[in-house]
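Many introductory courses stop at the sequence. We go one step further.
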Amino acid sequence: MSRNNIVVVSILLLIFAFAICALIYPLFGREGMQLGLDLQGGAHIVYKADLSSVESGNEAEVMEGVVAVILNRINPLGVTEPNIQKQGEDRIVVELPGLSITDKQKERLGRTALLEFREMTVDEEGNVEWIPATGTIDGQEKVLTSSYFKENTYVASDNLGRIQLHFEWNEEGSQLSGEITGRLLGQPLGIFEGDEPLLGEDGQPIAPTVQDVITDAGVITGLSLQEATDLSKQLNAGRLPVPLEIIYEQTVSPLLGANFVDLSIKAGLIGIILVMLFMIIYYRLPGAMACIALAFYGAVVLAIFKLMPVTLTLAGIGGFVLSIGMAVDANVLIFERMKEEFRTGRTLGAAIEVGFSRAWTAIRDSNVTTFIVCIILFWVGSSVAAGAPVKGFAWTLGIGVAVSMFTAIVVTRTLLRLFVGSRLARKISLFTAYSGEK
């Protein structure tokens, strides 16, 4: 073997080894790769805000306040990277990766976090009814609620081990509480969350008997430790300015997500191997160069996914695999053009240059139309409640197509140019696709 051939083969082997290693490592080294809810597990919740009571023109400001309060409530749950964003004018999308969240926690995230104190009355028929406990400040009648709490509630236990939720009134709350508890000495004072009574650990409504006038601070007893802790965090996180309603939710277990990852990797590897075998068998040496470029393409795309970073979903992996097929499609167009140039009697160097030049317009137009579709899909995914998989598909497909254009036009072309002037260039049969003809 001549020195030129040894150099060419050595360069090709080094590039191929580097590309394969670079491709395999990102696939199995998941460190730094962000996985979506369908792969990692977690919760995807969409809330709709009731803006009917908000003054016109203040909707955007109110929604920003809603996002801030929800974030404060989520932080104590231990979520590493929650995704909270506005969708449209009145919707909030909450994504909690890697977290198993209960229905009660989902509902609590969207509650206004307003405790209302009510006093008990009996109507003429003897039915018990709870009405808001009110007091008067500066001639105005006001309802006693947790909106007068300072944001410093905490949970402790008394000498008997009973759980207590400690709270402190602000100035107005202190006046209202002093007036109301002074009027209701010896009577129960119910605590309601929305229209439902706050339930104790035994499942019964909490309605402690007022034993003294409460002005500066007080305690709520009867709650379980978990309930008191969650309620304390919610109260300290702030009160939502508008009510929220869950209109869409999706929960995926981490175990199911892990299975998706393993199956996706296996499917991707099988697909890549089959494509490589077809390219080598049918297109021979150019097909082998396309396989090296394909391995390089996979490594670059996965590196981009880690660096940006891109949140990979199952649909996103589908977009990545589809872009691999489109990368091979570009090489097919180029090799077919090269075959036509060989038939006209051109040399290897001329066939490579003219083949790439004539195939470029078709590759460019097909990829531009794909980019347009990706933009439309990304816009659609941003406009609907369950659009995260659509956005992931559009995003990964767009990145993959952009990189595939580079690898097909630059990398494959550079690799084929290495053979120009070598002895292998004289063996045209190594560079033409099999057609059944001599």
